[in-house]
Amino acid sequence: MNKLMITLLTLVCSNVFANCDISPAARFxxxxxxxxxxxxxxxxxxxxxxxxxxxxxxxxxxxxINVSGFSAIETAAATSIAGYDDWRLPNxxxxxxxxxxxxxASQRNSVFVFPSNLNRVWSGTTGASGASAGLLLxxxxxxxxxSWDLESAGAAVMLVRDMNSQGIKE
Length: 170
Known about the structure:
Blueprint: H1 2-18, E1 28-30, E2 35-38, E3 43-46, E4 67-68, H2 69-78, H3 92-100, H4 105-111, E5 120-129, E6 132-139, E7 144-148, E8 153-155, E9 160-162
Antiparallel strand pairs: 1-2, 2-3, 3-9, 4-8, 5-6, 6-7
């Protein structure tokens, strides 16, 4: 019985780790200008949660993130970081891909500066919220997508841009 349990545990554990990349460090490339390149998805991210005072990161110990959907859209349109002014709110698929991969979670957390209370992030994807359309949020704790109207507050702003025009080498 013990041999059977050990064999089953070994198979389960090897299956979990077999799904991970052999070298997860190859996914993210950080530069010195607040930008992290996700080579797997060909995206560049601002390496932090962006505050409403443009071009600045919120502090990692921020007690409350209270950004409305309108403010998130305005922040994305007006931010210029690392010489780029084409930052945008990520769509829900991009956010999900950033937070879902447990194999690269430790590396992701070492190159991004997230506030300790980060739990919801605004996306640029819209959806129905009752009778009106609203932005979708990603809950980073459980990867659930939530619909909030543009006037609601309580989510963080992360910014992304496509890498295709940057000439980043893999």
